[in-house]
Amino acid sequence: MVNEYFSVFLNLKGKLCVVIGRGKVAERKVNSVLKVGAKIKVISLDVTPTLKRLAEDRKIEWEKRIYQKGDIDSA
C-alpha cells in the first residue's frame, strides 16, 4: 500500500484555524490545534458539550451557522 499523504509541520501558534463541522471529529481537530496555541473558530449549527464549554470559556470561537463562501479566506 502506497501512502498518498504528505506529512507537514506547521507553526500554528497565534494563527486562525477554522474548523467546519460538528461532533467528535470536530472536537478532535479542535483539541489538536488548541495544544499548539492556535486561535480557533468553529462553524457549525451545533457542537459537542466539550466544544460548547470551550466556547463559553472563550478558548474558542463558535459561530452557530452553516459554512459560507469566504469563511476560510482569513485562516
Structure keywords:
single chain; 75 residues; alpha/beta; Rossmann fold; three-stranded parallel sheet; 3 strands
Reported for the largest beta sheet, the result is: 3 strands, parallel
State the end-to-end distance.
Answer: 33 Å
CATH class identity of the domain at 16-63? Alpha Beta
Helix segment count?
2
| The CATH homology group name of the domain at 16-63 | NAD(P)-binding Rossmann-like Domain
Question: Average pLDDT across residues?
Answer: 93
Overall form? globular
Low-confidence stretches: none
Name of the CATH architecture of the domain at 16-63 = 3-Layer(aba) Sandwich
CATH topology of the domain at 16-63: Rossmann fold
**What structural class should be given to the helix and strand makeup?**
alpha/beta
Tally of strands: 3
Placed side by side, the strands forming the largest sheet appear as 1-2-3
Order of helices and strands: EHEHE
Q: Give the helix proportion (percent range).
A: 25-40%
Q: What fraction of residues sit in β-strands?
A: 15-25%
Based on CA atoms alone, the radius of gyration comes out at 13 Å
Short description:
Helices cover 27% and strands 17% of the residues. The protein has helices at residues 23-34, 49-56, and strands at residues 16-20, 39-43, 61-63.
